[in-house]
Design a protein that fits this description.
single chain; mainly beta
């Protein structure tokens, strides 16, 4: 756009009207977020900052908004924000965090661009839990529920139907990673895998079918030394025999 500094990453909006990019246009090595019409025009800075050493860590275009992770309010405290892609009022998406808490770099937008699911140590330092919130701000829904001491969320995905979240966590037993399903709006979680053999664990490899009715996952489920593939039947209720993974 003719200004100084370097552009690091960029994304194009779904309507192909604008490009959103991260760059150090104003202060060297300080990353900010900008939006610019593809046909050319006025560049808009999307984020603000209350201190000079802020950084945009990660961002994602979500329909007509941009969701981004930044420490723009408190130095070195990453939080989640949302702003219109053309610029405007910024909404903080996460609820208040403890003194040492922050939002991790791992968040996802729902396929319909209406919600955000993110991981944060919002209740205890270094205890990663799962939350959802509307993309434009609003009520924050806890998703992962109460965990055993030492438990935390390791990874997650949003179902294609936008209604559920599958996550990997040692929720019931510390250091035993299992799969759970919860509504995007919170509530009780359902464990998807049956009881694991001693020393077993679910791998961070799980994929839903396009109709959101089944899940394929890899696990050392029946033998602690053999990783196999498993498929849940419709509704995730019944587990089929494992098929050895190559």
């Amino acid at each position: 756009d003719g200004a100084g500094g370097s552009i690091f990453t960029f994304q194009i909006t779904v309507d192909s009207e604008r490009v959103v990019y991260k760059a150090d246009k104003e202060i060297q090595s300080v990353h900010d977020l900008y939006s610019l019409p593809l046909a050319g025009g006025v560049r808009m800075r999307l984020n603000i900052a209350l201190h000079p050493d802020h950084q945009i860590q990660r961002y994602q275009v979500a329909g007509d908004r941009v969701v981004y992770l930044s420490d723009e309010d408190i130095f070195d405290k990453d939080e989640l924000y949302s702003v219109p892609v053309i610029g405007g009022a910024i909404e903080k998406l996460n609820a208040d965090l403890p003194a040492n808490g922050d939002v991790s770099g791992y968040f996802r937008i729902t396929p319909n661009n209406l919600g955000v699911v993110y991981v944060a140590d919002a209740n205890a330092d270094q205890v990663e839990e799962l939350f959802s919130v509307p993309v434009g701000g609003g009520a924050v829904h806890p998703l992962s529920g109460e965990m055993v001491p030492g438990g935390e969320v390791f990874s997650f995905l949003i179902l294609p139907n936008n209604l559920g979240v599958v996550y990997l966590a040692d929720m019931l037993e510390d250091e035993v990673e299992e799969l759970f399903l919860v509504s995007i709006f919170g509530g009780a979680s359902t464990r998807l895998n049956p009881r694991l053999v001693a020393g077993g664990s679910v791998m961070p490899t799980f994929i839903p079918t396009a109709d959101s009715q089944r899940l394929v996952y890899a696990a050392a489920q029946d033998s602690a030394d053999v990783i196999e593939l498993y498929l849940t039947q419709e509704g995730y209720g019944v587990y089929l025999p494992g098929v050895a993974r190559p």
